TetR family transcriptional regulator (Bacillus aerolatus), 212 residues
Amino acid sequence: MKKKPLKARIVETSLVMFEKHGYHGVTVDQIVEECGTSKGGFYHNFKSKDELLYNIHDVFISYVLDRAKEAYDNYSTPTSRLCAIILSFTKVFDLYKPHITVFYQESTYLKGDFQEKINAKRDEYRKIILRVIREGQENGDFRPEVSAEITTMAIIGMVNWTYKWFKKDGELSIEKIGEIFNDLLVHALVTEKGMENQDIHTYLLKSQLISE
């Protein structure tokens, strides 16, 4: 089996150590010893331990942001866009669960420019969801009486909590969990008019969120 690049091995090692001992409970010396490299190898890939923590955060935040942009571009209705965004958001907890766990445990230690960059991406992601909801309300597909801002934060909060309880060997796959989230949102947010839209109806049938 081909050996993973050093940068990937450093990240994997630090994820385990940060999760177990905390960010300030682990030194660069301990990381390189556990990883089987040198401090030179570490600093060739990361300027500091802070940059390593930033990299851990940035990987999964960049992933969900890129997938949200793709969903917005690839689908034409607010409902299909929102469902695609939620599915990709949910999948991140299977792909990057260790990164996310460390993020929630250690995010307070991210400072300065690193913190600003991460917060900017999180805010951009929130605005994409908010935009989709507002567009759905404007065209009559989503209920207008609910707050778009609160709905956005409710969606993010609901899906974010997945990291606490999701298990790869659990009864439900991450894809099925994403479908359940979408089922809840569609039946809480989409209007009767929205359900009658042929493009939306076809998408919901394909996603098994409604029956024939």
In short: The chain has a mean pLDDT of 87.
